[in-house]
Amino acid sequence: MTRERHCLPLVRAEIDTYSQPVVFMHQDCHVCRAEGFRALTRVRIACGGRSVIASLNVVTGAGWLGPEAAALSDAAWAALRPRLGDMGQFSHPELPEAASLIRAKVYGERLHQAQFATIIKDAMAHRLSDLDLAAFVTACAGEHLSTCETIALTRAMQEAGRSLEWGEGPVLDKHCVGGLPGNRTTPIVVAIAAAAGLVIPKTSSRAITSPSGTADTMEVMAPVALDTAAMRKVVEAQGGCIVWGGALRLSPADDILIRIERPLDFDSDGQLIASILSKKAAAGSDRVVIDIPVGPTAKVRSENAAEALSARLRATAREIGLDLAIHVSDGSQPVGYGIGPALEAMDVLKVLRRTPDAPGDLRERALVLAGLLLEMSGETAGVERARVLLDSGAAEHRFMAICAAQGGFAEPAEAPYRIPVEAPRDGVITAIDNRLIARVAKLAGAPQQARAGVLLMARPGTLVQRGQPLFEIWAETPGELAYARDFANAQKEIFRIEVPK
Amino acid sequence: MTRERHCLPLVRAEIDTYSQPVVFMHQDCHVCRAEGFRALTRVRIACGGRSVIASLNVVTGAGWLGPEAAALSDAAWAALRPRLGDMGQFSHPELPEAASLIRAKVYGERLHQAQFATIIKDAMAHRLSDLDLAAFVTACAGEHLSTCETIALTRAMQEAGRSLEWGEGPVLDKHCVGGLPGNRTTPIVVAIAAAAGLVIPKTSSRAITSPSGTADTMEVMAPVALDTAAMRKVVEAQGGCIVWGGALRLSPADDILIRIERPLDFDSDGQLIASILSKKAAAGSDRVVIDIPVGPTAKVRSENAAEALSARLRATAREIGLDLAIHVSDGSQPVGYGIGPALEAMDVLKVLRRTPDAPGDLRERALVLAGLLLEMSGETAGVERARVLLDSGAAEHRFMAICAAQGGFAEPAEAPYRIPVEAPRDGVITAIDNRLIARVAKLAGAPQQARAGVLLMARPGTLVQRGQPLFEIWAETPGELAYARDFANAQKEIFRIEVPK
To answer: Which end of chain A is more exposed for a tag (fewer CB within 10 A), N or C?
Structure first.
């Protein structure tokens, strides 16, 4: 009966530890004692043909969990999917093959594609701890990935996910190397490209650290959590879609790495490229336009950095068979007026509807990107053709049809609580800090509260007088409104206002 | 009343997450909603003048924690020390200064002492996440720390802790670069040096991944959890002591880094040296002998690696004013007969008591190390003098006096459950795997169960017959005995037995 000794019934801890599986066990439980498990031990749990490796948190009190069961975090529960009363079998995990490969990379060895594939496979099977993953991300950061390795990592990540197929003919895609609030060109670009008769099955992400992702903004106007079959129906009918990529598991490896990369926030062209291009390839696209906003508070901060990133993007795209157009754009200030899901949706709709107050910068950026896509598909004067499709109402018409196909259009609503933030002195606005203004929108509740965010009322170059509103904060509760306002008033550098000489 | 909004009463989660502070909050609590906290967000919690930065785990069910309180893991609770009913104030932490320094190191910059000191300070204040620490450890691994940086890191770690002072005259210390089961020379070396009239205030560690640390073995024979005042009294009376260093906070930075280094297990001479020498300097010693066992299953696996490590140890020790003697020793097999706290204590006592069955290898190793210490203190023929002190009973007498001064001697006891593991075939033993035999001892319960472990009954070079006992497993419960035995019988490579040609 030796085997029986290392079993415990599994219960649900109802604790969200993000994607990191955690198991909670009481210090007095027989499995901990027999196996010598302590806090943070990596523990293998098997149940019904599935297994997961989790980190152990040890319950020391007599409170919510006794020694007669083991409790799984949400991620561990999702990985094992036990039924009521199922027993888990506990053991020490074998050292994953990836561990020695990560070690080799740390020591400066070059890895090839099969080795990256092993690391990705072990990461996806939760065989690597967060520390292992942090070591991998660190070892690949800076200039530590060669172009060959970037290509190998991209392929390994691409092959770890599902790939979509769209038949003959060009399949378009676009991507923005983030960091610019309000830069919500995607719905407009998709509408124009689809109106031109092209195929653009666009998958987008939700915000992770920003006040809104394209999926968050689009969701204000139409459902985005479509499965592959529903997405395919929309694209077959309308040529394009704007859906949330998270449900499609196109690059599940990226979902795992990004959880580690975001908080560490190391600049790493190699990892950025592998992340972007593996997803584009998995989405089945073969022509991609990439927007790289450059500015002191954007993700890419100099023309030189943009040039280096572009060169490696091109080299990697060529290797995996993607046709690439890169647009290096102005990233010195937010785009449009709204920051936050509903506020950005309003800007998008104004551009599509050609209203007099439509934000010109958003419109022009979308036209340039759409023009590049049209040119990659055989048009000669892409931007001109894009402008015609927008101005004629064809893009608006196509966008509404896409929304209807995705489940029905909804008009974005204004937030119930609004308050202006005023200029503290006379002068000319010389800069807006992208990161700080994004922070205000997040404190106001974006993106969880879709109507929360920031409405810009003055832009760089504008002369303002003391007391004149610079922006409005929108919130769904008075508490969040006050909180965002306090932060905005305490930060003097959101808008730089200088006295003209 | 804005400030009030970000407060919640603090309760104790009674969950051990090792030294990593974790806060548990319900997804519906107003603080999570207002601040936009999600799972794994880094959260600053202030309470009564203290603060800690913890990782957030989000409670999603209606079980043990509702939205009206925040629960702290043991480490977070210990850092904040709230009283019953105290409110915690929650906010987003500022980015620690160390983050940009770690980033610089990742990108290949050389750091100097003040920069390492900032990293150590932020780590000790729990301002760095485990991911940050893993990135730092990774960036310093392999050959990534220069000798200058090793010296700088050593000094930064030393200055982050308390230092002991022992007045005039030489203060001795010893250290073994681990990995060799049963290599428990310290009690013997201390007894000999103290019997020679020298000062050797030895602090030792408990096992982290091994079946016993020196503190675990010593604790079988005498109390070891002495505070600085009690330790000083023992040393003043007897010249030496063998106490647990964990209570003295000599290198608290090391305690934090080691938690990350152990699971990653990257070879890093720089970090190893900083860890060892910062503690020796903080303990107030100025002459240190270091034992480096070399063998295929020891920590240091080749003579070349030992030579490189020795060179850098010497350079760093010279800079921080430590006199160093290095002994590169045979690390091909376990030392003595016993593996596990009580079993090793028995070996130590046999050597001190000069019984006929005393393990000769342990005796000789202790004499060499003690001899080196005596020579560093002015003796000419150190080993000869050490032999006299041991053979005359002076060392035994001094050891018993030290035990009495630490709180009283206790004779190690045998475990109640014992079972032999037999040779599977005739042949000659050509090797013992240090790691596997240590694993058996740990599965039997060592070091938590002091009497558990392994008693070796045959050594390399011995001819054995099928069925002859190779070793005995000792355990305190029949379950653990069976568990260790099953593992031992399944592993064919613990003892390599070859047919002689």
So the answer is: C
